[in-house]
Amino acid sequence: MGRAEVQLEDQSTIRLGPYSVVVFPRLELLPSGTKVSIARGVRGTIYVSLMPNYIINTKGNEFQLTFGQQQVYLQPSGHIRLEIDPKEARLAMLDGKGRVDGPFGSMALARKRTLTFSLIEQSQPGVAKKVTANPMDKWDTAAVAFHRHDATSFARGLFKVP
What we know:
It is a single chain. Strands 1, 2, 3, 4, 5, 6, 7, 8, 9, 10, 11 and 12 form a 12-stranded mixed β-sheet that branches. The mean pLDDT is 87. This protein has a single domain, classed as Jelly Rolls. By secondary structure, it is mainly β. The chain starts with a strand and ends in a 7-residue tail after the last helix. It has 1 helix and 12 strands, in the order E-E-E-E-E-E-E-E-E-E-E-E-H.
């Protein structure tokens, strides 16, 4: 019923609104040092914000969010909101770049656009040239700012690990 936040090894974050479910089929550190994170959105409101390369070196890291038959791939600085109910999923690209693949093919994610996917039938996603506000957006925005400030301070050596 509450909210939750998951911080990945590269300090990217996944935030969950009330009654939301996400599973992690793969969280792996490869011998090369590359981090692979795959999360599956099941229901509810899920925010993902990847850390920018200028703050944390995320070069080579792989992040994928799946839902229904779709796979979302985000680039560093990518920030999305995914809202899933039993009939449809709405994917809002809040910032950054990425793409979504599915039975319809591959589509670039554009900033400030929302894609609506039917979870019942295979069809092209609907595209809206806006992002409708969600009551959880303020919490998400504050959390992104906090984590970026914290990561920047740590990267500059302002925080010392005991």
